[in-house]
Design a protein that fits this description.
This protein is α+β, with helices and mostly antiparallel strands. Helices cover about 60% and strands about 10% of the residues. The chain folds into 2 domains: about 70 residues, Arc Repressor Mutant, subunit A, CATH 1.10.10; about 30 residues. It has a 3-stranded antiparallel β-sheet.
Length: about 110
Amino acid sequence: MRRDVFQAIADPTRREIIQVLAKQSLNLNAVAQQFQISRPAISKHIKILTQCGLITIRVQGRERYCEASLETLSQVASWVEQYRVFWNNKLDALGEFLESTSGTSSKPGSTNED
């Protein structure tokens, strides 16, 4: 089953695993030693990260090394970018509106009856 990258990064432990592996590739035991959870739990997280393409497993002798493959995060960056543009446009429009109305509004604490 191919998992979604958003599902993978939704979990804080998986985000930490990605952060650890972005610095260097590690075998499964070395990854597990970085966390306060069981090795089977780490293996489950690694499996999910592998299924969504954020981690690749390289076999070297008897060891399985986990390596970050962060190209898939470009999907997340693209998704976030569309909302960044949306909100920047909304905030710019709000700023322009506030500037255009600031000259016509009264001072705080005063009334228009003066």
